[in-house]
Specification:
Layout (H helix, E strand, L loop, with lengths): L1 H38 L7 H18 L10 H21 L4 H4 L4 H33 L6 H18 L9 H14 L1 H11 L2
Helix pairs in contact: 1-2, 1-3, 1-5, 2-3, 3-5, 5-6, 5-7, 5-8, 6-7, 7-8
């Protein structure tokens, strides 16, 4: 009986963790897109940017009153993303039964590093998604109203690779190279940092 009760609690915790992680990640993606669009000076009159702004405004607008921008970066939105990722990491570990009371404050550095790794990994996937969407749109519907905003977001990312790698049969290989580079960063440096952070717990 106790075994079944424990099993049910574990399953509920896993379901809650799944929902929390996915819902929070969606909001984090919107926050990161907002930061990046403002940094790239993308016009916010397009439907995509307006959706991102309206989706995140309820949380960002109050913070902007106390957190100023810095070097063109929307620090209020970025700070919110960092704090939200940190809280999410703590909650997910709590649902897994991490012994916070026994571990003490010494594990906080590990959780801070874990949160930064998770956020940087998400940044890589957001940039990869932007490049993929732009590449698909350029083939399927280059005259889409979304094409201008996606192109302005990805052009600075691809420009260095376009300078180094020439067209091959009129095919631009820069998106593929950028995606491979992002995947390398996620699979090696960030993965190593994740392992290091877990050793600190």
């Amino acid at each position: 009986m106790h075994w079944h009760k424990g099993r049910i609690i574990d399953m509920l915790n896993q379901a809650l963790a799944f929902i929390l992680q996915n819902v929070t990640n969606l909001f984090l993606i919107a926050l990161l897109l907002r930061v990046y669009m403002q940094w790239m000076r993308v016009p916010f009159q397009n439907p995509f940017a307006q959706f991102v702004v309206k989706f995140t405004d309820f949380a960002v607008r109050p913070l902007r009153r106390i957190v100023p921008g810095l070097f063109g970066l929307d620090m209020a939105t970025l700070s919110l993303a960092v704090v939200l990722q940190f809280v999410l990491t703590l909650i997910l570990y709590a649902l897994q039964g991490f012994p916070f009371a026994v571990a003490g404050v010494g594990v906080l550095s590990g959780f801070v590093l874990l949160s930064l790794v998770a956020l940087l990994t998400l940044v890589c996937y957001v940039l990869m998604g932007l490049v993929l969407v732009t590449a698909v749109l350029s083939i399927v519907n280059p005259f889409s109203p979304f094409m201008a905003v996606f192109d302005s977001l990805t052009a600075p990312l691809l420009r260095p690779f376009r300078r180094m790698v020439p067209l091959v049969g009129n095919v631009d290989l820069s998106p593929m190279i950028f995606l491979l580079l992002c995947q390398f960063v996620v699979s090696f440096p960030l993965a190593w940092m994740d392992i290091w952070a877990r050793h600190l717990l």
